[in-house]
UniProtKB/TrEMBL annotation, chains A, B:
<dbReference type="GO" id="GO:0004458">
    <property type="term" value="F:D-lactate dehydrogenase (cytochrome) activity"/>
</dbReference>
<dbReference type="GO" id="GO:0071949">
    <property type="term" value="F:FAD binding"/>
</dbReference>
<dbReference type="InterPro" id="IPR016169">
    <property type="entry name" value="FAD-bd_PCMH_sub2"/>
</dbReference>
<dbReference type="InterPro" id="IPR036318">
    <property type="entry name" value="FAD-bd_PCMH-like_sf"/>
</dbReference>
<dbReference type="Pfam" id="PF02913">
    <property type="entry name" value="FAD-oxidase_C"/>
</dbReference>
<dbReference type="InterPro" id="IPR004113">
    <property type="entry name" value="FAD-bd_oxidored_4_C"/>
</dbReference>
<protein>
    <recommendedName>
        <fullName>D-lactate dehydrogenase (cytochrome)</fullName>
        <ecNumber>1.1.2.4</ecNumber>
    </recommendedName>
</protein>
<dbReference type="InterPro" id="IPR016166">
    <property type="entry name" value="FAD-bd_PCMH"/>
</dbReference>
<comment type="similarity">
    <text>Belongs to the FAD-binding oxidoreductase/transferase type 4 family.</text>
</comment>
<dbReference type="InterPro" id="IPR006094">
    <property type="entry name" value="Oxid_FAD_bind_N"/>
</dbReference>
<keyword id="KW-0809">Transit peptide</keyword>
<dbReference type="InterPro" id="IPR016164">
    <property type="entry name" value="FAD-linked_Oxase-like_C"/>
</dbReference>
<keyword id="KW-0274">FAD</keyword>
<dbReference type="Pfam" id="PF01565">
    <property type="entry name" value="FAD_binding_4"/>
</dbReference>
<dbReference type="GO" id="GO:1903457">
    <property type="term" value="P:lactate catabolic process"/>
</dbReference>
<dbReference type="InterPro" id="IPR016171">
    <property type="entry name" value="Vanillyl_alc_oxidase_C-sub2"/>
</dbReference>
<feature type="domain" description="FAD-binding PCMH-type">
    <location>
        <begin position="27"/>
        <end position="204"/>
    </location>
</feature>
Amino acid sequence: MKCRFGSRFAQGESIRVQHGRDESAHEPAPPDAVFFAGSTDEVAEVVRLCGQYRVPIIPYGAGSSVEGQVLAIHGGISIDLSRMNRILAIHGDDLDATVAAGVTRLQLNAALKGSGLFFPIDPGADASLGGMAATRASGTNAVRYGTMRDNVLAMTVVLADGRIIKTGGRARKSSAGYDLTRLLIGSEGTLGIITELTVRLHPIPEAMSAAVCAFPDIAAAVDTVIQSIQLGVPVARIELLDALTISAVNRHSHTTLRELPTLFFEFHGSPAAVSEQAQIVQGIASSFGGQEFAWATRNEDRSRLWQARHDAYFACLQLKPGCRAFPTDVCVPISRLAECIQATKDDIARVSIPIALFGHVGDGNFHLVVLVDPASASDMHEAEWINERLVERALAMSGTCTGEHGIGIGKTRFMVREHGVEAVAVMRAIKAALDPTNLLNPGKILPPGASS
Amino acid sequence: MKCRFGSRFAQGESIRVQHGRDESAHEPAPPDAVFFAGSTDEVAEVVRLCGQYRVPIIPYGAGSSVEGQVLAIHGGISIDLSRMNRILAIHGDDLDATVAAGVTRLQLNAALKGSGLFFPIDPGADASLGGMAATRASGTNAVRYGTMRDNVLAMTVVLADGRIIKTGGRARKSSAGYDLTRLLIGSEGTLGIITELTVRLHPIPEAMSAAVCAFPDIAAAVDTVIQSIQLGVPVARIELLDALTISAVNRHSHTTLRELPTLFFEFHGSPAAVSEQAQIVQGIASSFGGQEFAWATRNEDRSRLWQARHDAYFACLQLKPGCRAFPTDVCVPISRLAECIQATKDDIARVSIPIALFGHVGDGNFHLVVLVDPASASDMHEAEWINERLVERALAMSGTCTGEHGIGIGKTRFMVREHGVEAVAVMRAIKAALDPTNLLNPGKILPPGASS
């Protein structure tokens, strides 16, 4: 492939190492080579070649996955789609845009400047849209705008044998056969490689305002969230940060937030609607002892606030110099959220490693940042214990082991516990039907073993 | 099976005939027997028996499909789920409910009375929720609340070999593996039989008001819709009825609407939000020559209005006594809607059979009710011509041949044109993986032939 693609087929150590890790604490696993794809046809060509030689293929977007999705655990070729970064069409009138898979969410939003439209899905990292679709990403805006599942209309996908298919279309809805788009969203590159996608856009709300409110304890904050959601207030964002996270954020982002459990809100709509929503939520918050709302209505202030929120993960990493973090990602029905968080806090009190808690609580989704020295057996043991109990707790509450990070290699062992042996067997049957020689991102999502 | 299930296994002529047809004009095809299922385990048992004897299985809900989905075109056993009609749990705090597949949407909404919650998906007919999931149904509220795709969280499904799986869960979002829920939604009983499902509920808006507005011509009405959607006004319903439909509705429902192209609107929200939305849309309508809004704010008046809308299909049938209708169901990107409707109107002007037009134009979805005497070759020829051209037009506009009715047997011939040979081959591979002997609703969705 070297002669066919020149420097776009790279086998140098540093490029391989860079493509063998993501944002997670998983042990890096570099691919044997990296191919920087320039087009869907090129991806198909390389996939066919890999098929001939039985070489595993690992699609790579921005490398911002957190469950080891991009790691080449069985070797093979990393197909880096980041140079496929053209915005192919913006259909403003139809509120959609078609992009190559390597376009990132910030790049798309920059291109939308002046159009009155935006792409709301925001997982924090400036991930590629292809990667976000592949992991069914969501983030802070999902409570209002949904996840990638809800915001992708159509895709171009290269299959395991190099065939190229188009799924979906640009109509807002369709009942025409099996929903291949939704099957591929969240399949983490194990069923096909997404090379182009059409995403929904949304009109920029006339008014947007963000606020921060501190609470005496975490239960009061969570109860405020639950009641706001149950009343159907269409909040655009409602994020919880525990006291430890706030203290990390203050240090990292030079903010001066009170170091208490805190909710970050954002409201979108007409000026009247925003003020109405804010009033309702302020009333709820104050009934649970929430202290006054600190508002950010200017765009710069809102951006600064959300940047601080997005940096929370990195801020937490600095709580324990030299540490690594392994993030957790459970999501539970909202009625169980307070209980789930409380029991988790009780567990946290029983271990010695620092653990910060924050998340997209409007969806019932929260993360722990479990800070470990990977060389310390006791740290790792505590971290495993916390994570295992957390997942068991979420599953017992009809929740999921992952709200938005995906399975990767980090959560394969929970698949059967969450879905049951038979449903996992169905997933295996689909994988075998679409990728019979297991070339596409092998070892991800499905647990090892033929029947478990 | 007679001795095992007694009268719940029925082979009488009239029951078979009743289960061999739906609301469509397709030639009825009665099953060899009808099994009235009482539980998921019973469905699994009958599926296993059918597997042993290679007997086709056709799931049956309320019989309100319109593309022949319930017809036993290859014989076999119709599994009638209408007696599995228990509401299993209402989780008001989590805004979800778990029901057996035979529960109808009106039944669920009746059970929700007093809870402050409702289930919004409303395809007109009082369909079963299992059937609605199986055809990815939507209807008048979809522009605001989405389709069945967006409103099902979890399902219990009997597979072709009698295994029972649970898909999804009660968390609002999850990235845990392949989205089997979405794969099965819209699969029309060809991949599995949905026996239970958990659906999302929504808080009943504080204020709801409906209005009717007549326009000088259909283009003015459509332009009003397009502009409202592009501005992001969160209308709950926005329905177009052409002049012929209005005249049929007036006769059938004893209304006195002006016989002009007309939009039916509904607005949901706080009183202030409803009045704000209404004001914006009234402004748009009046700029396009819309005549004054006639408001229905009392619940009875709103219900009467929407009943009249839902009866439009039956009202149209009475335009030509003794006729049958075959409905069309294209959906296009909103920017192409005016052009699509105008070109279709031009076609309608060229045929002699009466054709009414109405639909869920906020989603770009509209129906023709093409009234034919099935015995008249010229009627059938005209109808086919209209339909064929309409689907080609929608596909050329990046739309779909079916926005909400599904494929059934009526639209299999458009599958390759819409999705391409390779995507249909992927669907076939999935079907073969999950139902290798083709027992589940054979002949539906996938076109005949191994490779097309």
